[in-house]
């Protein structure tokens, strides 16, 4: 006969839905997932390839990234700079979130190797400028957010040719205009965030106004896109400028015209120099003849 003090725990053990010996600790499961994904130690990883490293007070991108990581969440950290090759090993990355890091500097080769990247969020940082070629290697990029930074100018060389980019967020920066050629390198673009910038009414806005006419917006949103006229301090909607309003602006030269100018410039300079030397030689010869003639007349 079993001891009554021992029978009750034994009965509960036998009737339990999940025997104690079959229950794996949560830590073991997480460690198994971490080993499967090669997850950085400071991050929480989930099946499917997401590494959540947000809000960990990180100062650098965590080491140990692997091709198994598809989404890297680094928002709400303290990553103030991105050096060259900051994401080495994560060449299969599809999404990268770097919001609210106080990011001030991005090396031109920081994103090299991320050929598959589709979504990049750099919003709510402190970027004032971007080096040429910063995004040039991200040929698969379809969504780029630079909103809520301190950008005063965005050069086409920084973006490069991004044939698949459909959404570009530039709102809440310090942009008075868009550099010439910026939009022409983004053929698939159909969503452009512009509000909250100090746009200046002038010839430099001509490409942007032309893009807005081809991509009309809802009335409430269009009314918030305003530019200020220099010297007048009056606000005008960007959508209110037809192409005829820019007739007084000098047309930019096409690539073919630029080639002609650059080719003829040195040639014309050399031709002018040769003509000047020829004229100088001719004048010198004429003076010499006159002196000889005058000397002969004096001897007579």
Gist of the model:
The chain has 300 residues and is of the alpha/beta class. It has 6 helices and 13 strands.
Strand ordering within the main sheet: 1-2-3-5-7-8-9-10
* Low-pLDDT ranges: 4-36, 253-262
Strand percentage: 5-15%
| Total helical elements | 6
Number of strands: 13
Q: What integer is the average pLDDT?
A: 81
- What can be said about the biggest beta sheet? 8 strands, mixed
Write the H/E string, N to C.
HHEEEEEEEEHEEEHHEEH
- Going by helix content, strand content and strand pairing, the class is alpha/beta
What's the helical proportion of residues?
25-40%
> From the alpha-carbon coordinates, what is the Rg to the nearest angstrom?
34 Å
Summarize the structure in words.
This protein is of the alpha/beta class. The protein has six helices and 13 strands. The protein has helices at residues 4-15, 26-37, 156-159, 206-214, 219-223, 255-299, and strands at residues 44-46, 50-52, 71-73, 81-82, 95-97, 105-106, 119-121, 143-145, 167-169, 191-193, 199-200, 226-228, 235-237. Strands 1-2-3-5-7-8-9-10 form an eight-stranded mixed sheet. β8, α3 (156-159) and β9 form a beta-alpha-beta unit. The protein is elongated. The protein starts with a helix and ends with a helix. The relative contact order is 0.06. Mean pLDDT is 81; it is low at 4-36 and 253-262.
Topology of helices and strands:
Layout lengths: L3 H12 L10 H12 L6 E3 L3 E3 L18 E3 L7 E2 L12 E3 L7 E2 L12 E3 L21 E3 L10 H4 L7 E3 L21 E3 L5 E2 L5 H9 L4 H5 L2 E3 L6 E3 L17 H45 L1
Parallel strand pairs: 2-3, 3-5, 4-6, 5-7, 7-8, 8-9, 9-10, 11-12
Antiparallel strand pairs: 1-2, 12-13
């Amino acid at each position: 006969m079993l001891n009554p003090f021992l029978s009750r725990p034994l009965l509960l053990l036998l009737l339990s839905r999940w025997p104690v010996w079959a229950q794996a600790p949560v830590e073991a499961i997480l460690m198994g997932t971490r080993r499967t994904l090669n997850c950085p130690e400071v991050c929480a990883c989930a099946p499917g390839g997401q590494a959540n490293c947000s809000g960990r007070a990180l100062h650098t991108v965590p080491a140990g990234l692997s091709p198994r990581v598809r989404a890297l969440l680094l928002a709400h950290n303290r990553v103030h700079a991105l050096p060259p090759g900051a994401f080495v090993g994560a060449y299969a990355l599809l999404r990268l979130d770097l919001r609210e890091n106080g990011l001030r500097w991005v090396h031109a080769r920081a994103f090299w190797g991320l050929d598959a990247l589709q979504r990049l969020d750099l919003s709510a940082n402190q970027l004032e400028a971007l080096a040429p070629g910063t995004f040039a290697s991200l040929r698969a990029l379809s969504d780029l957010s630079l909103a809520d930074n301190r950008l005063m100018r965005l050069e086409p060389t920084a973006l490069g040719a991004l044939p698949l980019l459909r959404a570009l967020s530039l709102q809440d920066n310090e942009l008075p205009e868009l550099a010439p050629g910026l939009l022409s390198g983004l053929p698939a673009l159909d969503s452009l965030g512009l509000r909250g910038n100090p746009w200046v009414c002038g010839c430099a806005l001509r490409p942007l106004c032309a893009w807005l006419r081809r991509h009309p917006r809802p009335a409430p949103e269009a009314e918030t896109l305003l530019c200020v006229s220099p010297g007048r301090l009056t606000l005008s909607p960007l959508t209110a400028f037809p192409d005829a309003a820019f007739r007084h602006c000098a047309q930019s030269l096409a690539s073919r015209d630029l080639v002609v100018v650059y080719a003829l410039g040195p040639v014309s300079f050399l031709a002018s120099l040769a003509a000047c030397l020829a004229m100088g030689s001719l004048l010198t010869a004429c003076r010499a003849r006159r002196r000889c003639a005058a000397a002969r007349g004096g001897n007579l």
